[in-house]
Design brief:
Belongs to the glycosyl hydrolase 51 family. InterPro entries: Alpha-L-AF_C (IPR010720), ASD1_cat (IPR055235), Galactose-bd-like_sf (IPR008979), GH (IPR017853), Glyco_hydro_b (IPR013780), Glycosyl_Hydrolase_51 (IPR051563). It is found in: Secreted, Extracellular space, Extracellular matrix. This protein has about 675 residues and is α/β, with parallel strands linked by helices. It folds into three domains: about 45-60 and about 555-670, Golgi alpha-mannosidase II (Immunoglobulin-like); about 65-85 and about 260-545, TIM Barrel (Alpha-Beta Barrel); about 105-245, Galactose-binding domain-like (Jelly Rolls, Sandwich). Helices cover about 15% and strands about 30% of the residues. The chain is built from eleven helices and 34 strands. α5 crosses α6 (about 370-380) and α5 runs parallel beside α7 (about 405-415). The chain is globular, with a radius of gyration of 29 Å. The two termini are about 40 Å apart. Residues about 1-40 have low confidence and may be disordered.
Amino acid sequence: MLGSRNIEWCEKDMDSSRSLCCILLLVLFGISVQYQCSASGIDANETALLLVNASEASARKMPDTLFGIFFEEINHAGAGGLWAELISNRGFESGGHNFPSSIEPWSIIGDESSVIVSTELSSCFDRNKVALRVQVLCDSKGAKLCPDGGVGVYNPGFWGMNIEQGKRYKLVFYVRSQESINLSVGLTGSNGLKKLATVVVVAANVSNWTKVEVLLEAEGTDPNSRLELRSATKGVIWFDQVSLMPMDTYKGHGFRKDLFGMLKALKPAFIRFPGGCFVEGGWLRNAFRWKETIGPWEERPGHLGDVWNYWTDDGLGHFEFLQLAEDLDALPIWVFNNGISHNDQVDTFHVLPLVQEILDGLEFARGGSDSKWGSIRAAMGHPEPFDLRYVAIGNEDCDKTQYRGNYLKFYSAIKEAYPDIKIISNCDASAKALDHPADLYDFHIYDNASTVFSLANHFDDAPRNGPKAFISEYAVHGNDAGKGSLLAALAEAGFLIGVEKNSDAVEMASYAPLFANNNDWMWKADAIVFTSSQAYGTPSYWMQHLFKESNGATLLSSTLQANSSDSLIASAITWRNEIDDNEYLRIKVVNFGSSTVALKISISGLEQNSLQSFGATKTTLTSTNVMDENSFEDPKKVSPVETLVKQVSENMDVVLSPYSFTSFDLLRKSISIRTTTTASGLESSF
């Protein structure tokens, strides 16, 4: 794709001259080389030459922020995913703040002769007034006896709660009753028969709303568990704001450990949040409003994410997203609503209240603990400001009639208050200059595999001066993607190699979407798929592992020459391994074709003897079928495989398998010797 597209084979009139020329070319491209990282015994029907100039004069430092992640509340990525809250619809508000409200997925234990369940607008919380009324008609004695265990309600969480033996879970709920209460609260299997943990709550004076906290320790394991609230005493009990959180979330910050660990392993330079279309809303009344998502969790009203059509209690709110970025050691990029949804818009003349709302949000993140909004952040446990340096004004709104007017209002106000903050426009400037000021411009690409691969050179002619590109959403989409195919990952890898080569015009790039709950595929494919108890990375997730060292690395000049270069793309960088403190030269090559390729790598510009003969590795992402996917049954069917490279020199002959992504790490300055790893070794432990 880059460099010469065709090799000019020798065209001499004399047979002897033609033979000599072709012999020289065969030597040049190393059709027959030794087995180690070679083509020995392989019928390589394509040949290519990669020239790498490792001299400092031809090198260029890439942005420290080049590759990161994008989190959107889609596919139950947060609610029922990364955010570890086990209760779905904890405030009984999922039907909206109306009466009567929907209590799904809460269900009734008992029949109509023993219990009546309804909702009332009687909560003690002003911003979420719906409460659950449970009228127990039976009793533990007398003519109308309750069934064994009593009656009440249960919550199955998000398609089952993962309860594990020996682990502890914090249950919090609010309750009131005119009589004394005797409740059995417990964790059971999906049908209620298997008892995992039970605690009896007895209270005599709960005529006013009373907060109850219970610690449950599981005596068994079941990934499809549920929480039960039962009573065998006749009377009326009101419940509200029921929460069940595992005690072992990451640093106690509420993030599910295994999913957080998979993010951390990518070493993201940034995290864009909280959307996406989730930010816009189908209608402005359902847009993400940061002020509604801070403070005590039980006071947050929650809202309907009407684009992806599910309720979120907003336990994962503005504060938690900023905390997530800090825990990931990633820069936060806040995408906020600019008065535009999919179906309605605020006229620029009336947008100033929304501008002030965003200025307040910036003060919440960056203000001192003595400021109005900074003090609220401090009260939530973070007295020091968050390192918020980037904001995006809207999402995919460039073609909306009010966007430019609204954008300029936000831009001017933010730059006046926080001149250092970099502002991202929704309008593409890769081919045409913007008609408004911006520090970066947003670029999204979802398409078939061939198109995504071909877009590796999209930014070749993009302006190097002015706003830089932020490719905040890229992925193969449609039939080529499946639920996460090798084909998609290879196309995306080729695209990212193009991003590396154009990193003087591109400052950031992130894959989308990040997460998918296996029970709610609103968008395919995604980087990480999970259930309540399991998770795996798709090939696109593993592909990103081979780019995580590129942040702040040095890009080397490289030229690829091939007789079919439309299916090949390569880059070369130098990077320092923070684990062994060694410096490596990494060469990445995507073979997007169906033929085996014999590749000769020729490296120039190195200091004498700086390329070590040991410590080199080869990492390959491929499979037997280009549409292969990972699954819960075979989670690493398509994942990187690393082997040692035994023979290293400035002129190397290697073989590229059909439909493969290969990375070579060559040791430059040795301090310690690196050992080989498998895909699991690419993930850090936390």
